[in-house]
């Protein structure tokens, strides 16, 4: 079926070739078709979402007249005609239902029927199994490919064509008027030397040679892949899409994977008579209701024809320019084509799915404290019997069976050596623990670094020669990779044991951390879980399909193909259609979320309700193991820990079995016995658990990182705010700032001083010298004495300044020289005395050398030192360019740039008259 985008493009090309304003350049168009048949296939490569063409504005203007052909020519049995009509419209009245049920019998003897499948994979498996059953030599033709391999998958011919003489084939390219796409024939001769296959097409015997197939990308505006191959495919079976348009006499329709409205109708409608049709695996859910717009389209009235057809000569107007809306929203409305499973990778790239799921991270851990130490590190409290508890109860995978067997053997035959191994690793791991977190008597704060350190030490030990020789001692031979697998289980067990006992008091933050809540707690979460579960199933299905396809024609691999085929069938059984869910799901409220998340992968993730229940179970189990507390204990190993716990849960596995109790093993064309079914079941269980663990682990790690990131950024933000505050206050308020303030009564500087005082009174200590404080006191009418300590002066200011709205006696604040004079006049107390007093008071708090006033000689000497570049600023370590830009602290005697101490360079501080303390000493 033509899509809206394709229709618009054809119209555009015709109009441009004709260089005309008329639609299609004035070319008369007669369109025919049945919209209740297969809908257009979306084409991701060309950004075509696969909308019905009648939705295009151009279509509405061009096809104003509609004629409904209602006489069916292919079939002549009224009940059969009605049944095809019903199922095409998504209806299943009783008479039609009964008729379809009756058609589930084998076909009466006759020619080999063609089997129709909804999905390519089923067709391929069927074709391969039939071909291998046919006598004769298998011949293969391999294509010559160029370009992007993912695009090559879209080709209608495969990379390899496997055929035998007398096998049925179908032409997949129009070669001439008679040799058309879809024509069926039988292979008569095969010549691999000159790449030719002779085919008998109903008496027309023709040599078919290799043809070039290309994939064009309108996005890249070029051919992105090409394949040179014989244009034939095997035709024991075909897809329903491929069979559309054919008229057949004997058909078997496998309806198990019908995924589109119209698909079943097309399949059933290919055959002339009921007696030539057999239905396989038919369910009512295969009858899918088409979208409403289709019914609306047929209900629309048609415009009557005018005799001169003037009604059809409409000019193209810009108002009907291409409806490119869907280019923005390429696939939100789209559904999947039959190729969907093969396009998963491509789709994933487009929706930015993180494929790197499950990569371990070592460096993240939170900062809980370890309170309790319960293990006596000198003795090993673990017995060999305890080791048995690390054997999994339920054996799902081959690896588990293997580990169990090996461990049992060691426990029976190498008890002594195993005991030595156990004691030694216990001691070593305990030592490592102590080294990192301290001894049992000390409570030590642990942080992410410590945990990383701990796990890296464990890793080093487990790869040391000492450790390897321990294992070799137990095995009585050179250690192999299998041995390490077995012993790593005991190693993990001991490591967990030690941490478990030491961290038993760690606060379990499961409830407070959002990342550890179950998906299934609310509707949105359930919707998300359905999507995740569906993705796990779809990925698993794709995985087995690929293995199956790769081994399809290898004779000795047929059991592997059967195995994969059965697994795919089981996975199919777990899914349904969105329409079915809308009608019958008990979790309808959650479906919206599933649909929203599906976007491109719509259809892939519609899993049945009972399958969702099973995943809810997994999820609830998962949060018991996948939480912050467990993360502390297992570090990067948490993924394996969670995975193993879920894998070995008997309840989960039996729930999984229950899910499939009604699955009909006989409904497939491959022979399946009970053992194979059970093996497949276990493998699938293991695969789905693994995939689910990867997704949840990925999410868990992301959430952890996010929460750590938030903590980190909060600390950082705090620091920035504090620094900014400090900078602000210390820079904003200084004597020169107050003096330069031209506002009335120096309101501006008053406010700044006020805010500086309110924020932190101690900052004032840093900003002003004693002399300046005296000045300020005078300006605010505060009675201060030069004998007062700086702190007392500040306290006075602190108590007074907030009570004023501006500086009351601005006149008292003059320039610094005047200030000095003012202070001189105020009190005639020797400054040296005050300095001594102040220094001795400070000395009570911290030890400091007694204050010695710098004599002119000392200053001169210092000056000389400065000039000889011997002295540098103690903050920035840079030299001083001028004498005036430096200042020396009277407590620590260090030199600083004034600016490094937030003192403006032009500010004069005569240190022969007053002391000055650097910021550090003030603190
Ligand atoms: N006027 C006719 N008289 C006799 N047989 C006819 C007539 N028209 C069509 N048929 C036969 O009916 C069958 C279906 O015809 P055709 O494929 O053209 O229909 P269609 O509408 O394209 O079908 P579909 O869309 O279902 O594939 C063919 O076998 C054709 O030979």
From TrEMBL:
Domain of life: Eukaryota
Gene Ontology molecular functions: 5'-3' DNA helicase activity; ATP binding; hydrolase activity; zinc ion binding
GO biological process: DNA recombination; DNA repair; telomere maintenance
Catalyzed chemical reaction(s): ATP + H2O = ADP + phosphate + H(+)
InterPro entries cross-referenced by the UniProt entry: DNA_helicase_pif1-like_DEAD, P-loop_NTPase, Pif1-like_2B_dom, PIF1_helicase, Zinc_finger_PHD-type_CS, Znf_FYVE_PHD, Znf_PHD, Znf_PHD-finger
Ranges where the record places region Disordered: 826-859
Pfam family, one: PHD
Keyword Transcription regulation belongs to the record: no
Keywords: ATP-binding, DNA damage, DNA recombination, DNA repair, DNA-binding, Helicase, Hydrolase, Isomerase, Metal-binding, Nucleotide-binding, Zinc, Zinc-finger
Domain PHD-type: 870-923
Assigned protein family: Belongs to the helicase family.
Protein's name according to its UniProt entry: ATP-dependent DNA helicase
Lineage, broadest ranks: Eukaryota, Metazoa, Spiralia, Lophotrochozoa, Mollusca
């Amino acid at each position: 079926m033509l899509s809206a985008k394709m229709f618009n493009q054809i119209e555009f090309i015709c109009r441009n070739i004709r260089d005309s304003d008329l639609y299609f350049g004035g070319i008369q168009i007669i369109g025919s078709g049945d919209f209740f048949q297969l809908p257009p296939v979306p084409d991701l490569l060309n950004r075509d979402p696969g909308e019905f063409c009648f939705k295009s504005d151009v279509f509405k203007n061009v096809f104003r007249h509609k004629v409904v052909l209602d006489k069916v020519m292919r079939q002549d049995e009224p009940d059969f005609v009605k049944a095809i009509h019903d199922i095409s419209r998504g209806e299943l009245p009783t008479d039609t239902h009964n008729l379809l049920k009756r058609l589930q019998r084998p076909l009466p003897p006759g020619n080999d029927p063609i089997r129709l499948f909804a999905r390519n994979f089923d067709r391929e498996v069927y074709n391969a199994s039939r071909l291998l059953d046919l006598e004769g030599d298998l011949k293969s033709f391999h294509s010559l490919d160029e370009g992007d391999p993912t695009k090559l998958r879209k080709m209608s011919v495969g990379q390899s064509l496997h055929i035998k003489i007398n096998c049925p084939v179908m032409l997949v390219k129009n070669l001439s008027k008679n040799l058309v796409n879809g024509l069926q024939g039988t292979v008569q001769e095969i010549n691999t030397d000159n790449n030719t296959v002779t085919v008998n097409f109903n008496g027309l015997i023709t040599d078919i040679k290799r043809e070039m197939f290309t994939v064009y990308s309108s996005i890249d505006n070029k051919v992105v892949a090409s394949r040179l191959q014989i244009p034939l495919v095997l035709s024991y079976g075909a897809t329903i899409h491929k069979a559309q348009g054919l008229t057949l006499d004997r058909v078997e329709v496998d309806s198990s994977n019908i995924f589109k409205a119209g698909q079943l109708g097309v399949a059933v409608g290919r055959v002339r008579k009921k007696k030539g049709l057999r239905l396989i695996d038919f369910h009512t859910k295969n009858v899918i209701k088409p979208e409403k717009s289709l019914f609306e389209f047929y209900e629309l009235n048609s415009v009557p024809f005018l005799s001169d057809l003037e009604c059809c000569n409409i000019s193209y107007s810009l108002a009907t320019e291409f409806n490119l809306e869907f280019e923005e929203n390429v696939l939100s409305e789209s559904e999947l084509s039959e190729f969907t499973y093969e396009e998963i990778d491509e789709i994933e790239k487009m929706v930015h799915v993180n494929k790197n799921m499950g990569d371990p991270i070592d460096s993240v851990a939170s900062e809980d404290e370890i309170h309790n130490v319960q293990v006596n590190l000198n003795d090993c409290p673990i017995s060999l019997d305890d080791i048995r508890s690390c054997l999994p109860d339920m054996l799902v995978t081959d690896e588990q069976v293997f580990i169990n067997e090996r461990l049992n053997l060691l426990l029976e035959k190498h008890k002594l050596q195993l005991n030595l191994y156990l004691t030694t690793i216990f001691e070593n791991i305990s030592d490592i623990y102590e080294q990192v977190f301290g001894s049992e008597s000390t409570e030590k704060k642990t942080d992410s670094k410590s945990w990383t350190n701990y796990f890296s030490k464990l890793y080093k030990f487990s790869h040391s020669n000492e450790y390897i020789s321990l294992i070799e001692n137990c095995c009585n031979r050179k250690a192999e990779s299998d041995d390490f697998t077995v012993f790593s289980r005991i190693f993990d067990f001991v490591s967990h044991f030690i941490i478990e006992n030491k961290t038993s008091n760690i606060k379990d933050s499961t409830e407070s951390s959002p990342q550890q809540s179950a998906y299934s707690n609310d509707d949105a979460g359930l919707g998300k879980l359905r999507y995740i579960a569906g993705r796990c199933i779809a990925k698993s299905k794709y995985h087995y399909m690929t293995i199956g396809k790769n081994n399809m024609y290898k004779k000795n691999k047929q059991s592997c193909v059967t195995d994969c085929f059965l697994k795919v069938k089981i996975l199919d059984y777990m899914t349904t259609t969105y329409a079915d869910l809308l009608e019958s799901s008990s979790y309808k409220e959650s479906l919206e979320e599933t649909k929203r998340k599906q976007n491109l992968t719509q259809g892939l993730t519609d899993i049945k309700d009972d399958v969702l229940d099973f995943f809810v179970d997994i999820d609830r189990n998962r949060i018991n193991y996948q939480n912050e507390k467990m993360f502390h204990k297992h570090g990067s190993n948490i993924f394996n820990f969670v995975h193993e716990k879920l894998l070995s849960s008997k309840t989960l596995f039996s729930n999984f079995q229950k899910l499939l109790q009604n699955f009909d093993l006989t409904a497939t064309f491959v022979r399946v016995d009970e053992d194979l079914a059970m093996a497949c079941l276990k493998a699938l269980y293991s695969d789905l658990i693994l995939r689910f663990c990867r997704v949840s682990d990925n999410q868990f790690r992301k959430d952890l990182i996010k929460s750590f990131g938030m903590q980190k950024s909060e600390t950082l933000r705090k620091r920035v705010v504090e620094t900014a505050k400090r900078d602000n206050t210390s820079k904003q308020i200084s004597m020169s700032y107050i003096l330069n303030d031209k506002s009335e009564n120096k309101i501006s500087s008053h406010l700044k001083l006020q805010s500086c005082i309110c924020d932190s009174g101690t900052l004032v200590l840093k900003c002003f010298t004693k002399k300046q404080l005296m000045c300020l006191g005078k300006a605010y009418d505060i009675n201060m004495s030069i004998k007062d300590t700086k702190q007392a002066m500040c306290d006075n200011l602190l108590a007074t300044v907030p009570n004023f709205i501006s500086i009351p006696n601005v006149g008292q604040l003059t320039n610094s020289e005047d200030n000095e004079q003012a202070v001189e006049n105020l009190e005639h107390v020797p400054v040296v005395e005050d300095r001594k007093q102040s220094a001795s008071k400070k000395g009570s708090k911290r030890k400091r050398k007694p204050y010695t006033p710098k004599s002119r000689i000392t200053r001169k000497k210092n000056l000389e030192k400065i000039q000889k570049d011997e002295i540098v600023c103690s903050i920035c370590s840079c030299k001083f360019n001028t004498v005036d830009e430096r200042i020396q602290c009277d407590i620590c005697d260090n030199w600083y740039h004034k600016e490094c101490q937030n003192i403006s360079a032009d500010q004069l501080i005569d240190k022969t008259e007053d002391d000055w303390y650097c910021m550090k000493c003030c603190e």
